[in-house]
């Protein structure tokens, strides 16, 4: 299962660092490629030579070699990894990961990652139970990290309770589980729309909305990680997507309509998360409209309803998922949209929920099926929301 997987192991300054040697040995035995980053304080507990020997790679710790000036690129390390595993993760490192502090190579690499991170906390009982630590761990989960809960037993201090780093064999099992769940959409084609459209008024002005495209990009990344062939049709957005995703950049609702219909035929799953403009100017002024004292009237016409058009032509073998962003009568309006547009699922966002909707890294959703059954989810990072959505799609008969 791990043959050829590139796993980056981060080691921080806790007594449990001695267990990391066993974890690296187990990873190598499973055929994984392993590289190690150590914080400076972790060298007080285990030597770089030990971990370098076990991983068959140099150990990274400093930003550069003071003698040669050779640079250890945190960007290259982040791009290399299929998975980042921090074991052990001390309270100090957990706080820095949760609050954006980048004062060593491990942390700068973490903040440059495009893949997921598994975090194995290790600390004394009272420290692990402290509200600040609990809050920081919760933040990391919201950000999309996976926490490997510590075991319960005798600690280095002599206390007995939670806080000891999970055993290497169990960490290995969780790493294996992470990769084993990633190919459920193998040989499937997934079409996703994302972001806002821009409806031009004149050469410098347009009508749009606050959608950034982040949710759609996370959906595309999740579909890719599940083994799907992914096509992402996206309006103007600053969010990048992985090279394995076929990305089609569009601007207007008309362009998005055409791109979707050009790629719909062989799609197994269609997820329409884009916030498409409902109206577009009937006429685009060829030059910039000058400000005048009198009122300016712009005549708008409805855009083509992409979701409705797909609902009319989708086959019984295609799954169609829509989104509804509502401010009033949320469930009623979303359920009506589900029926009218022949959807299999609809993902409801309410602007009345703090942290949901456009412009943030989190979302809070309710998924409604065509049996009117509601599944409610807590506020999560958009990457975790994408997992929830695809888990629901995969559960459909």
What tags apply to this protein structure?
about 400 residues, alpha/beta, Rossmann fold, eight-stranded mixed beta sheet
Architecture blueprint of SSEs:
Layout: E1 6-11, H1 17-29, E2 33-38, H2 48-55, E3 59-60, H3 74-80, E4 83-89, H4 91-99, H5 105-110, E5 117-121, H6 125-129, H7 131-142, E6 146-147, E7 151-154, E8 160-164, H8 168-180, E9 189-194, E10 199-200, E11 206-207, H9 214-225, E12 229-234, E13 246-249, H10 253-263, E14 269-272, E15 279-281, E16 300-302, H11 306-313, E17 319-326, H12 330-340, E18 345-350, E19 362-363, E20 365-369, E21 374-376, E22 380-381, H13 382-394
Parallel strand pairs: 1-2, 1-4, 2-3, 4-5, 5-6, 9-12, 9-14, 12-13, 14-17, 17-18
Antiparallel strand pairs: 7-8, 10-11, 15-16, 18-20, 19-22, 20-21
Helix pairs in contact: 1-2, 1-8, 4-7, 9-13
Characterization of the model:
This protein is α/β, with parallel strands linked by helices and 397 residues long. The chain has 2 domains: 6-180, Flavin prenyltransferase-like (Rossmann fold, 3-Layer(aba) Sandwich); 189-394, Rossmann fold (3-Layer(aba) Sandwich). It has 13 helices and 22 strands. The protein has helices spanning 17-29, 48-55, 74-80, 91-99, 105-110, 125-129, 131-142, 168-180, 214-225, 253-263, 306-313, 330-340, 382-394, and strands spanning 6-11, 33-38, 59-60, 83-89, 117-121, 146-147, 151-154, 160-164, 189-194, 199-200, 206-207, 229-234, 246-249, 269-272, 279-281, 300-302, 319-326, 345-350, 362-363, 365-369, 374-376, 380-381. The strands form 6 sheets. It has an 8-stranded mixed β-sheet, sandwiched between helices. The protein has a 6-stranded parallel β-sheet with strand order 3-2-1-4-5-6, sandwiched between helices. Strands 7-8 form a two-stranded antiparallel ribbon. The model has no long low-confidence stretch (mean pLDDT 91).
């Amino acid at each position: 299962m791990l043959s050829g997987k590139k796993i980056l192991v981060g080691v921080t300054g806790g007594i449990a660092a001695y267990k990391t040697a066993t974890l690296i040995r187990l990873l190598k035995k499973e055929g994984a490629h392993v590289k190690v980053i150590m914080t400076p304080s972790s060298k007080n507990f285990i030597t770089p030579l030990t971990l370098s020997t076990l991983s068959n790679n140099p150990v990274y710790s400093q930003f550069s070699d003071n003698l040669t000036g050779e640079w250890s690129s945190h960007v290259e390390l982040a791009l290399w990894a299929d998975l980042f595993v921090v074991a052990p993760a001390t309270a100090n490192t957990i706080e820095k990961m949760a609050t954006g502090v980048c004062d060593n190579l491990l942390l700068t690499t973490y903040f440059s990652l495009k893949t997921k991170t598994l975090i194995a906390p290790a600390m004394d009982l009272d420290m692990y139970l402290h509200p600040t630590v609990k809050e920081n761990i919760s933040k990391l989960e919201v950000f999309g990290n996976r926490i490997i809960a510590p075991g319960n037993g005798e600690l280095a201090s002599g206390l007995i309770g939670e806080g000891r780093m999970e055993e290497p064999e169990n960490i290995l099992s969780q790493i294996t589980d992470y990769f084993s769940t990633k190919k459920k959409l193998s040989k499937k084609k997934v079409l996703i729309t994302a972001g806002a459209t821009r409806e031009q008024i004149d050469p410098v002005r347009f009508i749009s909305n606050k959608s950034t495209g982040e949710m759609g990009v996370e959906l595309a990344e999740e579909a890719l990680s599940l083994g799907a062939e992914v096509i992402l049709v996206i309006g103007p957005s600053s969010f990048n997507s992985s090279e394995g995703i076929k990305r089609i950049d569009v601007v207007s609702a008309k362009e998005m309509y055409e791109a979707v219909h050009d790629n719909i035929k062989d799609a197994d799953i269609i997820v329409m998360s884009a916030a498409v403009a409902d109206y577009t100017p009937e006429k685009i002024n060829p030059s910039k409209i000058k400000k005048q004292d009198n009122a300016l009237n712009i005549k708008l016409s409805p855009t083509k309803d992409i979701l409705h058009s797909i609902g009319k032509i989708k086959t019984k073998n295609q799954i169609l998922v829509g989104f509804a962003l509502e401010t009033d009568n949320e469930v009623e309006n979303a359920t009506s949209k589900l029926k009218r547009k022949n959807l299999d699922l609809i993902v409801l966002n309410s602007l009345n929920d703090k942290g949901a909707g456009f412009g943030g890294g989190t979302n809070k959703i309710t998924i409604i099926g065509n049996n009117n059954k509601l599944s409610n989810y807590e506020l999560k990072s958009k990457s975790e929301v994408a997992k929830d959505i695809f888990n629901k799609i995969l559960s459909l008969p």
